[in-house]
Amino acid sequence: MTDLTEADRVAWLSLLASDTALESPYHHPDYHHLVDKHQGGGKVTLAHRDGELIGLLPWQGGAFARPSGAPLSDYQTLIAAPNTELDIRQLLMGQAVGAFHYTAVPTDDGLETTRLELNNADEWRAARDGSYRRHLKSTRRRIRKAEDEVGTPRTVMQSRDIDAYQTLMQWKQEKFRDTGKYDVLANSGNSALLRELWERGPSSPLRADLHVLYFGDRLAACDLGLTDGHVFHSWIVGYDPDLITYAPGIQLMEALIDSAPDIGYDVIDLGPGTDGYKRHYATHSRQVASGVVTLPSTAGWIAGCYDQAEDALRSKTGDALGKLRRRYSQIAACEPRISGRSLALVNAFGAQFKRHEA
């Protein structure tokens, strides 16, 4: 990664503290240091004014660049001081970059994200609407049902159990295969990044915390999230598929809400999307968008043409081209060779076809 001085790191953290819109552990300098350690090719472009750092962009790649940590990074952005007139194109000029593809950059008009801001679990629940109360009533019935049929539900917050960690990774990879989604955990750099963040443990200022639900002695659900101690970003979530009738993921979510203030979390971030179970939990939302920034070059021209075709054909194809672009961006970030990317695309779409046939 671009060599950063201790003064740069302090200034980076100061920029984060100056703007609540940048409140996410994905923007922490330690995260991008570890991304570079395990994936390689990390860069940080800095912008100074009168010797003062006013903005920076962590990124990876070459002519076709991407945000640092993509596709694992659920939030990606240019980090800048408030009211600073600076954009991604400005920072990448002169960097031999033709196109910068992103999937989760803040915007005023995009996909909503789900955030729970809470200081007290009882007060948070009291402020929820009737839909949530019905949802909670159903969850409590399932808790009693699990206790009667499997074992008493119990949670372990900030678990250090390696067996639970490895089982979560197995569940998640099986889910990727079942849904036809690209398995980002098959990339050794991605899996090593997650593992080191978890191995840092609860005392680290940036880490991955693992929260676990058991029914008796049986592992039921896990949630591995990136955290700076203040914001917990739910990241890798999985559950025993044979226990789905008991909604173990929801049970774990409710337990996490109860435990969050004691752990130190003021925010639980469930990431992009407000559909499904997430609609019951959101207290605040932000908006993120995917797209591309192009610069004068052959790579920029190619990316620009695809972007124009995507817009022009949206009325006929819906988001099909956008899904293809996002899928390829995921694969390209994890597969350095063209042959590997081609095979991954074929496998991904083959799995999708089989799923639709079933």
TrEMBL record:
Gene3D superfamilies: 3.40.630.30. It comes from the Bacteria. Transmembrane segments: none annotated. It holds the Pfam family Acetyltransf_6. Signal peptide: none annotated. Residues 134-279 form the BioF2-like acetyltransferase domain. This is BioF2-like acetyltransferase domain-containing protein.
